[in-house]
Amino acid sequence: MGRTQTILYDKTYINICPSIDCLCFSSIIGGKIMSNNRNKIIADIKEQEFDLLVIGGGITGTGIALDAQDRGLNTALIEMQDFAAGTSSRSTKLVHGGLRYLKQLEFHIVAETGQERAIVYENAPHVTTPEWMLLPIIKGGTFGMFSSSIGLYMYDFLAKVKKSEKRKMLNKDETLKRVPLLREDILKGSGYYVEYKTDDARLTLEVIKKAIEKGTKAINYTKAEDFIYENGKVIGVNVKDILTGEEFKIKAKKIVNAAGPWVDTLREKDGSKKGKYLYLTKGVHIVVSKDKFPLEQAVYFDNDDGRMLFAVPRENKVYIGTTDTHYKDDLISPKATKEDRDYILDATNKIFPKANLQKKDVESFWAGVRPLIHEEGKSASEISRKDEIFYSDTGLITIAGGKLTGYRKMAEKIVDIVSKDLDKYKPCRTDTIALSGGNFGGSDKFKVFVESKIKEGEKLGLTTVESSRLVRRYGTNVDKVFEIIKNDFETANKYNLSLEVYGALKYSLNEELVCKPIDFFLRRTSSLLFDIEWTRKWKDPVISFMSDYFNWENKDLYIEDLEKYLSEIEEFQE
Ligand code: FAD
Q1: Which of 268, 403, 410, 413, when mutated, tests ligand 1's pocket best, judged by the most ligand atoms within 8 Å of its CB?
Q2: 355: number of Cβ within 10 Å
Q3: Segment 153-167, tens digit of pLDDT
């Protein structure tokens, strides 16, 4: 490892640790906090003993942090990558009851997650939107017309779906009117029902931002290396700042392992990996342009091997997935193979033959690892998605499995346990807590809010499309973005950044702990998935701004994961 250098930047002394593992800027010596608050958070975390430390900044961990903090527990959260960089930015991006669980007779999951959809929507309508889903009924398919009708009726009943969103059964003609691209000769009709579309990474971010607003100390790129014990009980964690290489301790009365696909790694370190263990499966999605696949209606369709896939329109793109295969490889960057891609293309072309999608049409992709609980003799798609809690004799509590949709209920279970153990029990209130950016006073006010704010953005010089993107993405936080644009358009000009990009970037640095360009392009804006042209256009000016902002000595270290993703996308088209 190279020698750490100290430099003076913006009246602040900064330690630069040059090793690959240590990557970045950071660490104040002389009083002033780096502009993204990272050093201040770390200093705060080191100083105190918390009621609760959560390991893992995916939807499970962030949900626990919000609930715990709201119930008065002094809470810290660490995430070894960026927030949501694990499974929580790699899902199908649906807040759904999971129709497939009905097929597996898991009524409890259907009821609980089904009911949760409305709550997740109400608390953050800027990240979650109702989306009518079409379930084609095909000859020889998984669902028949009668069983679909009964199934969807039960789905509505269990999920307590409101009247306007209750399922409809469509005949063949009605179905083709909605989705003319469907293969006609095997089509019998369809079920038509409501699910909710989300941005999983932004949902996770809005949860952790709300927790931070309430007092949680949360930091990304900080890894739990191992546990600290006293009299056989876990009382803290030795952590490493992945960006600086600095090592320090965090003390807490209770520690929750919410490390998703990595929970068993931490259970092994704790010596408590006994009984049930994780079974990891991989799911891949591909993204194509609507120019190639003009689908305007979300469809949940059968492949002929019995697996089900989603095709979901999103702005000018459509994403399709997922595969569901056993996975044992790299967890940080799960690999999407060309077989995965071909499987999805074949399945799509079979049911939408007019689309005739080719590998060169794939504009982007993502792969995610699902942390399921092993069940003897069951295949990847048969294993239950229910969550499970493991208790260690050391006091470590682990939560695994579950779904994005059920995050709030998972958090409630954990915080009930922790708060009772600490003799600080208060009832859960997260069903009525608006997430960060979600203060519209009810989802019914969202539309009016959007319309008026878009106009405000236009007055600042944004185009309607740019303004709309910002308003819909940031919700009520868009005022902060507009403030940045109003006060600092000269900086935007200096770096050749459009007002939209500059506002989003500066906001993400100020409020969302962005450390690397990939954090911005993949998890703050998801442009790497759904707007690859936008990513390519703004990549260099964004890197240039971030490089000056953080005073990077070797910017290659920060951009290598973004470059790698971009080149993987190119290879994926071959
Ligand atoms: P993660 O998001 O993986 O978070 C765990 C975090 O812990 C990671 O970010 C990791 O970096 C961090 N970590 C690990 N070890 C350490 C350590 N030592 N120190 C610090 N941090 C650590 N659910 C739905 O409801 N709807 C869907 O449409 C849906 N689709 C899916 C599609 C696919 C392909 C997959 C794979 C899953 C899908 N799911 C869906 C399930 C859902 O995405 C997951 O249940 C959920 O995201 C898991 O969140 P998590 O927080 O438990 O795990």
Answers
A1: 403
A2: 20
A3: 888 888 888 888 899
